[in-house]
Design the sequence.
């Protein structure tokens, strides 16, 4: 598993939105904004109860993961003062998780991080778990 440096970890823990990139079985890329949590070893992002165009397990990102589990996750910091710009890109493998200790821990982390989940419960909703294999990053200063 790839390790995050101090400033990378700070950006990951203070960021609120990430961008999840997947690739379909025929090589078509897709990027979607996601909420996430990080437990020090894995990232999790929910297939939550916000309105979706399809059943969560039929979403493009899930179909892509079934064909190709390699993903990238980008967390960035934009500021009008460009000296504060930064991003972290995590490349890794992902899987849909629906039960077990990893699932329970992921749901708890997400609920603690995003108070909105008090009104949109996560229990019973699938998660995507991402194991980092490589970390790339950049910052302006």
Sequence:
């Amino acid at each position: 598993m790839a390790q995050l440096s101090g400033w990378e970890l700070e950006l990951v823990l203070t960021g609120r939105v990430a961008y999840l990139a997947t690739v379909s079985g025929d090589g078509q890329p897709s990027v979607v904004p996601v909420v996430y949590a990080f437990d020090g070893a894995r990232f999790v992002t929910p297939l939550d109860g916000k309105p979706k165009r399809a059943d969560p397990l039929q979403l493009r990102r899930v179909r892509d993961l079934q064909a190709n589990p390699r993903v990238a996750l980008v967390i960035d910091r934009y500021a009008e003062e460009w000296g504060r710009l930064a991003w972290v890109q995590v490349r890794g493998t992902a899987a849909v998780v629906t039960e077990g200790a990893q699932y329970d821990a992921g749901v708890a982390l997400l609920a603690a991080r995003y108070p909105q989940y008090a009104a949109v419960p996560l229990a019973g909703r699938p998660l995507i778990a991402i194991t980092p294999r490589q970390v790339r990053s950049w910052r302006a200063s």
Observations:
- The CA atoms of residues 2 and 133 lie 5 Å apart.
- DSSP finds three helices and seven strands in the chain.
- Residues 6-139 form a domain with the Pnp Oxidase; Chain A fold (CATH 2.30.110.10).
